[in-house]
Design brief:
The chain is of the alpha+beta class. The protein is built from 3 helices and 2 strands; from the N terminus they run H-E-H-E-H. It is flat, with a radius of gyration of 13 Å. The N and C termini lie far apart (32 Å).
């Protein structure tokens, strides 16, 4: 299963009535190639907001800040 397919399956439970379809992804830096995110958007029409962290400390800080 491709990463694009996995993302699409994860979105199946989302709200279909939403005007703008967006998925927020928070992940380790350099974990997903940018081209995969672009392919996902092209195939699904869902915009990917991609944010990264490079240490557990950064992860915790961002999560606690909201």
């Amino acid at each position: 299963m491709s990463a694009v397919s996995a993302l699409a399956l994860g979105l199946a439970a989302g709200n279909a009535a939403a005007q703008e379809r967006v998925v927020n992804v928070y992940n380790w830096s350099d974990y997903i190639d940018e081209s995969i995110l672009e392919d996902f958007t092209k195939e699904t029409g869902i915009k990917v907001v991609y944010d990264v962290f490079d240490s557990n400390e950064i992860l915790e800080t961002k999560l606690l800040a909201g």
